[in-house]
Design goal:
2 helices; about 170 residues; alpha+beta; 5-stranded antiparallel sheet; elongated; about 25% helix; OB fold (Dihydrolipoamide Acetyltransferase, E2P)
Length: about 170
């Protein structure tokens, strides 16, 4: 008698594509993996908890990013750190300092080589600084004032048009 055993990977619930508020809740050290040159590299995984999406169990959905543990300026990890902090990493960086940071993630669905669909973090949008938030509020308030005044200017324009209709050729000095 032959026993056939199949391994099937669980298909996780995927967050929808788009922009999601997220918090970095864990940074896991992973087993070393091979890079594109066949060299063994240490890796880490960022675990993001989405603050605006719940799974069918009512728990926050998660998104994951895996990086080679490298601070080379062109590495994906360095780019992620720059996206989160707004500054370069230099030669040394404490990854644990990122835990708890809240950002916006752009999630995109991609099909893997195994035919499964994966939710990938396409972009990290760093959190606004207090100065940026204050400037955004100032611009929003100024825009609201302009819109409020725009309604009044239409009334004044209507009055001006009414007065213009009473003007005759004799009122024009040339």
């Amino acid at each position: 008698m032959t026993r056939v055993i199949r391994y099937t990977q669980k298909q996780f619930e995927l967050p929808p594509e788009g922009i999601h508020a997220a918090r970095l809740i864990e940074i896991k050290d992973l087993e070393p993996g091979l890079n594109s040159k066949g060299e063994e590299k240490s890796r880490v995984r960022f675990v993001w908890e989405l603050l605006d999406e719940l799974n069918s169990s009512g728990n926050p959905m998660k998104a994951f990013q895996t990086f080679n543990l490298s601070l080379h300026p062109q590495s994906f990890l360095s780019q992620a750190i720059r996206d989160i902090t707004g500054r370069d990493t230099g030669n040394e960086f404490d990854l644990d300092s990122l835990l708890g940071v809240e950002v916006d993630l752009v999630i995109k669905h991609n099909e893997g080589t195994d035919g499964r669909i994966y939710a990938n973090v396409a972009t990290i949008l760093r959190p606004k600084t207090k100065a940026e938030e204050a400037e955004e509020k100032r611009v929003t308030d100024a825009t609201a004032k302009l819109k409020a005044n725009a309604g009044r200017s239409h009334v004044m324009t209507a009055r001006t048009r009414a007065m213009d209709s009473e003007v005759t050729d004799q009122d024009i000095p040339f």
